[in-house]
Description:
This protein is mainly alpha-helical.
Amino acid sequence: MKVVNQLAQAGLLATVRGRSGGFRLGRAAEDMTLGEVVRLTEPCIQLADCDGCILQSQCGLTGMLHQAAQAFLRTLDGQTLAMAARTSRLPQRVLPAE
């Protein structure tokens, strides 16, 4: 429910309370990037936990890992939720209506 609440506060989901309640997309799937969803649900993308490491100031890997994480997010920024749904193998009943 914490993730649903985060996504609803950001406008990615619309929630309905009550007995017949639930949630649905808050915007068109074409207007939501996977990068946006990942940034909301995983605010701290680190490929390694370098904080507090005694080697951090001398390590050449820290910058490379940061660049790799940024490249990952840029790739997801170019992919929409609609694109992911189109290539999904999930049963149609769980995919958004077009």
